[in-house]
């Protein structure tokens, strides 16, 4: 027994001692260095971000578009029929509950933060040359770019790892870790140094990525409280906000998935829809409806061009501040959101998974941004204006939503509802992250000591506070620099993920239609397997990935050769016809 194992036993932990203590140590040291050396840390990430944006910004943009094309291929191919479960089990959650949970955990906070801020920014400062600011063409392009950032591409970043997790966790019964997605190439080495390194990077990167979102949400809550109650927008106020929200998130994560996260998600999505309908009914309703439909068409028309657009000729640097930042930020969420989506998606086919996770949230995003975006343009072009001045000229992006709501009835009440929405959205993000981070370190989804989930939830709040202290008055720009750097290794893992996914599908199907796939024994990390073996509860679990005997497929070099397929009812008939 190692020193780390003895320490874990003394503290009553049931987890991988190496992953837990190494990842936790890196997180704590990072937070301490960030607070102690504010300026050097900020300068270091600023310099690294500048280099990446100049030399590798294209890689971020290229990567997400390739991921999207890969997912579309899987959905329409024969692999789309594969069910993400050991047997032909149906989904565990209804479509309504499934959508609410994946939406709240994945993008709820982002929608509240950018619903007004992004359209008004692109309206006042069009991304592409030749478009007159604050014009009708600027409004159209603003919606096209906004939906590009929050539509299919954002959800692609969540869907790819979510699908890989779902396959390897539910089909091959591997541990719920990022390293499990590399089992086709690494084999049992997923438990070795390479696998552990992958998992440490994923765990630490997830903590940092979620912390950035908490930081942005805190800035927005602070802006709303300043609008309503006159509370100063300061580091002290933001630390208090983080402390309160982290405390509520800890209570939620201690309650578990069904009693905490699921209930909060369902309530919050209903409140968000309520706010959306209020804006639609009390605003220029017809303009918003027509504009939303038109924006959907603009998005689909612009999408093929934007997917690989790198601003090569003008090189204004705009994409670094917007597109690259979004992709880098979102991909740091991908391990956490991916495992969470995989957990709630057991029993769905690959085709159902891809179309659901890509399609449903994207449709909601089009409606959400369509209504708020059209409201922005109506205020600026036909109303009293003021949004461009506050959000763009003064740079008050966190206050954009609250400035927008002052143009509607019951502004104080709706602003309060907006604050609550942001708070609950990132409470669900924090408690979901705490649950998933604990699952990743444990290597299994069975009940574990609550203190472990509480620690990871607390660690997200701690890093968020450290980042806000380090960012000072620069706020958003420092967070952008930081997350751009952290996102790079995740893109590299994404390309490797696609190769592993294809190889696993081909191995398990034997390249023979119909898709009768082999089954796998449940795999536990070595420490957990040894602990359960000593306790006599290991049952049929194994340490080394191993298929169930007798379920191996018959392989052939020709995927269309049906002669050796025992399940093809037409084989005997074909042979008889040939003789005749």
UniProtKB/TrEMBL annotation:
Residues 564-580 have a biased composition (Basic and acidic residues). Keywords: Cell membrane, Membrane, Transmembrane, Transmembrane helix, Transport. It is found in: Cell membrane. InterPro entries: BCCT_transptr. Residues 535-580 are annotated as: Disordered. It is a multi-pass membrane protein. Pfam families: BCCT. It comes from the Bacteria. Its main location: membrane. The chain crosses the membrane at residues 18-38, 58-76, 97-117, 150-169, 200-223, 235-257, 269-289, 324-342, 354-377, 408-427, 454-472, 478-498. Belongs to the BCCT transporter (TC 2.A.15) family. This is Multidrug DMT transporter permease. The lineage of its organism: Bacteria, Bacillati, Actinomycetota, Actinomycetes, Micrococcales.
